[in-house]
Amino acid sequence: MKSPRAVRSPGGLSVRLDVRSLVVVAGLLLAALAASVVLIGTGDFAIPAGDVLKTLAGGGSASQEFIINELRLPRVLVALLVGASLGVGGALFQAISRNPLGSPDVLGLGQGATTGALVMIVLFSGSAAQVTAGALVGGLVTGLGIYALAWKRGVHGYRLVLVGIGVSAIVTGVNGYLMTRADIVDAARALVWMTGSLEGRDWSQVWPLLVLCAVLVPLVLGNGRALKMMEMGDDVSYALGVRVERVRMALLVAAVLLTSAATAAAGPVGFVALTAPQLARRLTRSPGPNLLPSLCMGAALLVVSDWASQRLFGADQLPVGVVTNVVGGVYLLWLLVSERRAGRI
Fold it and tell me: What are the residue ranges spanned by the domains of the chain?
């Protein structure tokens, strides 16, 4: 695959295209869409892929339209949106912290969102909408707290990671305490939510995530060039005209909102935000944050993981968070071993 090409328009505008990255993005999008069609047809009432496409186009039977449009399509859309949000959120955190471990899983945002959800479940026996709102507030408060504690004439990447690890430990202890206060019914409900699950997701989870992604993803992608410059250091970025703190703050807020909303919709689905940017970078072989490839990789990962959980264990028998944790943990161990053999750790 050739190196990036510069394309010049008749008006003199020059655009630099990375052909390999474009091919990777197109391949991941096709994989995510194909897996989505297969996932929609998977369940106790199996539907062939051709019938799924026919029904989505408005030509299916009444029973197929109900099963697909009301029961399965919202779940798949939530999986795509949650995976995309976690993928781009993880890429943002890793780029801002300049650390491959700088993901929401490590920084404690998922644990903070879990605290908000547990408060609503254990203390107030809240409804599904209240639990979602509690998780969103918990993630936002945790993210703002980490940023405030890490601030010292700016936010240094390693300081952000270290503060996040400390906050994560504290919040995890709070979550353990809340679980001890729960009765058996609330504890079982909380445990399923904490694992990360797409069971029972409907259109009420789709629309808020869709609106949030429609607003934040273009904002994030529009600042991709500035973020790539920031990876060279604050001094170089300032010299190139980047308003470093303003861009960093805006992107951190966007990353916190995306990951908190994803956690609120599906629970703390582990390792997607950590592994999606790493896998995307290995496929594109391109330096920089790889925001769009990470977004597509996250969506494909979560849909494929949900299909695997249903295909191997039956519908709703195994939460998707279990699959992503196992796959992500294996990948992390492999990454550590390969880095050690290469002498980089």
Answer: 21-53+70-337
